[in-house]
Predict the 3D structure of the following.
Amino acid sequence: MALSSSSEHWRRLEGLFYQALDLEPEARAAFLDQSCGTDTELRKEVEGLLKSAEQTMDFLQKPVLDAAQEIMNQGRHDPIGPGTELAHYKIISMLGAGGMGEVYLAEDLRLKRKVAIKLLTPALTRDERGLRRFEHEAHAASALNHPNILTIYEFGYADGLHFIASEFIDGMTLRHHLAACRMELSAAIDIAIQIASALAAAHTSGIVHRDIKPDNVIVRNDGIVKVLDFGIAKLNEKQIGETIRRTASAIASSTSEPGMVIGTAKYMSPEQARGLQVDARSDIFSLGAVIYEMVTGREAFSGETASDVIAEILKTEPPAPVDFAPDVPHEVERMISKAIRKDRENRYQTAKDLLIDLQDFKKEMEFQAKLQLSARPGRGSGSKDQKPVATAGIGTARRGLGGHPLFQVDDKPLATNFLYSRKTWVGLAILLFTALLVGYAALRKSHSVPTAQQPRSLAILPFRNLKQDPETDFLGFSLADAVITKVGYISALTVRPSSSVDKYRNQIIDPKKVATDLNVDTLLTGSFIKDGDDLRITTQLVDVKPDKILWQDSIDLKYDKLLTVQDRVAQQIIRGLELNLSPAEAANLKPDKPINSLAYEYYLRGVDLYSLNEFAPAIELLQKSVALEPNYAPTWAHLGRAYTTNASLRFGGREDYNKAQVAYEKAIALNPALVEPRIYMANLLTDTGRVEQSVPLLRSALQTSPNNAEAHWELGYAYRFGGMLRESVAECEKARQNNPQVKINSSALNSYLYLGEYDKFMQSLPVNDSTYILFYHGFGAYYLGNYEQASKDFDRAYEMEPALLPADVGKALSYSMKHENQMGLKLLHETENRIERQGVTDAEGIYKVAQAYAVLGDKPSALHMLEHSIGGGFFCYPYFVRDPLLQNLRNEAEFQALMDQARHRHDQFKVSFF
Amino acid sequence: MPPERQLVTQLLQQWGSGNKAALDELMPIVYEQLRKLASKCLRAERPDHTLRATALVNEAYLRLVDADVAWEDRVHFFAVSARLLRRILIDHAKALKRDKRGGGAEKVELDEAVLVGPQATGGILELDEALQRLSAHDQRKGALVELLFFGGLTYDEAAAALEISPATVHRELTMAKAWLYRELSHGLS
């Protein structure tokens, strides 16, 4: 049908439809008789539409996302009936249900004991990384064997359900006690002491609870308190974070959402509510809010909706406890108030400190009680609430709906899987890491990703686990990483580093989209499934542009032959892409000598843990691996990397740098062709003030792999330290030339700033919201004289991550613009202390501190920091001489001496390498 | 203002004042943001509360656009979002379908037909195809369904976006739904 007649037809159809619709149904037939005449086709169509119109009540009623949500919410499983068996547990009864899942009383059929089974809702377990982190943390807490921490027996998976088996505690949650009656002061203090004691133990081991609230505390009938769900907040934190941000930003009324986060929100610390990184002090705040509630019978922070609660937490001081409970001793008020300070710096700094105060108070209370008994009717300074401690006094509540009686303390955890038996490091590592990583990555790392003019570009994505099996999940990332390492030094091929493909883990991907994101023309995807000792791995190589599968392969092997996978896949890549190898490359690609299969498994697990930001456990496994098999170069390379990152993030110390260096040297000695250890080693050398050694290493890496963007970027970084700014820009541009990722992940091209090309600098800023980028944005604005903007950016960056070095520097500059120099200097002194205390080696960052000192007028400190920076290997002389921020210092003799020193090293650098 | 927000606001204004190229730059940024938000939603990572489409677009808007932007630009943003959300949801449905065929371990929890409406026979992919046919006949009606059903806009917002009256929205929607419904139930009759 021609278009014009088609649209003519449509218009007629539409007109008739509307007219007929306006008529009473009985009148429509006559109307159509008249208007359609002999065009029965048209008439049938109108009638069809009219009929449809009557049935469209529920059709397209809701926006599709809303409908999707509702369906998902219905899609929860039904409660499990008594007698049902789940793995080797037999369900006895349901104990309660909460946000994280239902809790059942069950019998362990093997060990013939009662256990509590907590089912995790599917929504929580879908994120398998999150699940594994939670497992680590929960096990770590449980492994402390603390009398006030619930013991976990096992993480299980059966019939499609993830569950946790733990000791069964016969008692009620603190929530129920609170609901039942106002608590006696002595009971409240007793409970507070036990919670604080649990937290102190966990914090010492680097584990933060993150979700301390009355629902997560069980009081056994004999008064013993158990804290549950260590680490479980991890499972939920993304979703909580999202919701908080949304509610906190006070969006349109259509999104007000009572319910979900409220329970949790009420005990959240301000930093948590802001979505910032939390540390142990966040738990102290939450505990403070819980004590407040125990003592007063009122919630410290409350509201109709989550956003109201959050507003309270962020802004409002709760009424003094005496307003509700006139008898509360002053000392208790003081402890509460100190625990719930908005600024964590002003809070109790450790749970231990709070614990000591609570214990002291308890002793004092007992003493007073004795006095009262012996010297009636005289009364001590306290109140009528001050009675001898009576832990049984709170057991009067009924067992209500949703109570969580749990289990008896006795056995040690059953599952002492070597990964889970780690005690302490995991929590600390994850906790500190996330924010730092973002910044760290933004500053200088993961600006990876090479590209090429002629070579094929390839991304090897993490393999998908076809079976839901946390035990084998580590293979997904680590196998892909092993292949990446293997083919990394073929010059005819540019392979994206594993840090760039990490994000595709466990994702359904659109190959075209991924290829565009990573700027590659070829993708290797794979999946695996392990059944007993049998492993099946399928891989396919896709040429994205014509969307052609170059080859597909299915490898069946025994689990202990894992090592052969990387060789086989590497060979297939070479054949599939018809790559020409130089003889040296071909020699390097010869299959690896068989190595101890357990060592290889440790290696893969270590690589996986590293990618999950769990550095300490990663180091431990990689160490185990090299102990069994000291001649496998990639393990040493990864071990070195884990040490370096650990040190950079200041979990470790300088000794970690030394260990890293030893490991890299080992890797390079064992396999001089490997590119990665050379790049990592160079990064380490630059970071620790030895940029002169890093340049030759990078140049040699680029000889092996001329298009390696990571190497180019590191070289640009090294040149910047040495003051070769044009050359630095050129290298960085080479790195990011064809790499859309670099722009997002990497820091700005600082060299532009140092060259005085501020506009270019601003243009080079990636578009994202990280603290670093905000800082750089402000810094650029500052140089451009746009102080209002600069101040705004600095303040925001500081708000996002105080105690991050550049955020402090920005804030100090912001103070200077407001003429609050004293405040700025105070902040800088704190920063400087941290630098000294933690052994910060970031010489470029230290230079920024010097700049801020100079601007704020503290010349001696500025010179001290400048000396520290130059001595630490940042001798970017051409920048120093033109840097307007150092203007204040130029007449100082010491400054001249420092400049001479920098110039000398810069000149040497230039002569040696250019 | 953070750089991203500044950029999006600018692009939106440029597009509003007739610079078509601005839209090309705008789409990927908005797409990325919406995709992130939507995939959270679709993976049911927020089990205990409902994230409505409107709220989702609102959230993307708040993250990406300066609050002081003109009302027209805001409507433009919503219109773009609706189109992108449609793409995201369709891609998602396709991916699920692929997985079903492949027998993968991915959990398939969306009964797509229910998304469209209880009596409809087709799922969301069929709806998308029918919607394309509808747009071929009548672009405005296609756009209207897109705004309301995929973008979660209110009638008033959709009216503003299409520059028609709410009454016309109502009338045209009746026709569009009737037509789509008939298309989707052809298989049955």
Observations:
- The two ends of chain A are 73 Å apart (CA to CA).
- Confidence is low (pLDDT under 50) at residues 71-76, 237-263, 377-453 of chain A.
- Chain A touches chain B through 68 residues (CB under 8 Å).
- The CA atoms of residues 769 and 797 of chain A lie 9 Å apart.
